[in-house]
Amino acid sequence: MARKTGSHSEITGPRIRAAAERLFARHGYAAVSMRQIAAEVGVQAGALYLYTPDKQSLLADMMRSHLEDLLEALAALPALPDPVARLAQFARFHVGYHITRPDAVFVAYMELRNLEPAHFATVEALRRRYEDALEAILQAGKSAGLFSLPDPKLATLALIAMLTGVTNWYREGGRLSRSDVEAIYADMALKSVGAAV
Amino acid sequence: MARKTGSHSEITGPRIRAAAERLFARHGYAAVSMRQIAAEVGVQAGALYLYTPDKQSLLADMMRSHLEDLLEALAALPALPDPVARLAQFARFHVGYHITRPDAVFVAYMELRNLEPAHFATVEALRRRYEDALEAILQAGKSAGLFSLPDPKLATLALIAMLTGVTNWYREGGRLSRSDVEAIYADMALKSVGAAV
DNA sequence: GCTTGAATTGAACCTATGTTCAGTTAATTG
DNA sequence: CAATTAACTGAACATAGGTTCAATTCAAGC
């Protein structure tokens, strides 16, 4: 056997990325073999190398594109003047987005240590841009006297950790709806920085 | 060469566990080889098997003993009647403890997916007990009308995620002292559940 | 329908892995 | 000091890993 009936790079490529994302999220990058990914797609391991130069790039590209998508989606939100409203918007956005792409988020969060230095720098810079967006909101609210927080940098990290934690337990069709979860997290986020709710 | 001068199981054993903890925390369980651990200790790989039946047990024992220590330390805290004070105490304790043992905490948090089912069940049960302690505080505060939170279970997970996040950035000798950090996190925790501060 | 190029196989290569074990040396005991 | 036990080596085994590549089959365009 060689080329398969119906085979097409526009089909196989995305399927490889999807399989890798799911497997990396479940078992971790280092614990997943190229042969496992290939098997999930229904292909031999060698075929993966038509779509990625190596395993490391598969991970790095996945993380980079996820963060780029995240930043793009964040930038697409309507601009709000009030820091309180902006924080509520950010919290809901963050939780909502993370709920819809749990695997990508999980990988981007857990696999930083498996990136080679060059890839790490790229991904870390994107992550920093995202965190800076939140920090800017907190800083604005603090300057306007709307938030009470001793350290905006620490509060940024604390909030992101809290909001990202949703991926640890949320499952579609559970006790709480997505909208419920977004609202509760946003409420906690606002209160945690002393915003009147 | 065979037995080394000055060799002793009471020395080598702990050194192996410490090296494994550090390496697992840095690179992840699956990415660390027995030979790397052995090299860190200054011993051949085969020697590790005098101290652990296999690699998996090394991980499982490390996680279990860490969680047992954590629960023991939690139980040793002075009992407080007021839910608000208890929450503040819990938050400070959690942050403080996590700061002092970042590697153990990191492994216990990140490597759950690399545990075999039997070990997973044990570790998960311990983790559940810890979470339940926090949930009990939130529930008590809610019942007493001191906290405003729609869902204590969700709030538990959100708070733990927020507080545990400290391990992602805190380094000894940084801009903020350990006590500062504990205070800020405790403050955010209290406010996030609507406790008067 | 034939040719060209795209998609994939399958086997191989080399390295690394977890684990075992007979043999060797240091510490300890009597 | 002899004998025993505890600690460790070094080499080996079997398997699995990432990656490469010649050979093969399918799809597309003329």
Could you write a compact summary of the structure shown?
Two copies of one chain form a homodimer. Chain A has 197 residues and is mainly α.
General description of the model:
- The structure is a homodimer of 197-residue chains.
- With 197 residues, chain A is mostly helical.
- The first copy, chain A, folds into two domains: 9-52, Arc Repressor Mutant, subunit A; 57-192, Tetracycline Repressor, domain 2.
- Helices cover 66% and strands 0% of the residues of chain A.
- The longest helix of chain A is centred in the middle third of the chain and has 27 residues, at 117-143.
- Chain A is elongated.
- The N and C termini of chain A lie far apart (65 Å).
- The model of chain A has no long low-confidence stretch (mean pLDDT 94).
- The interface between A and B is large, with 36 and 36 residues.
- The structure holds a DNA duplex (30 and 30 nucleotides).
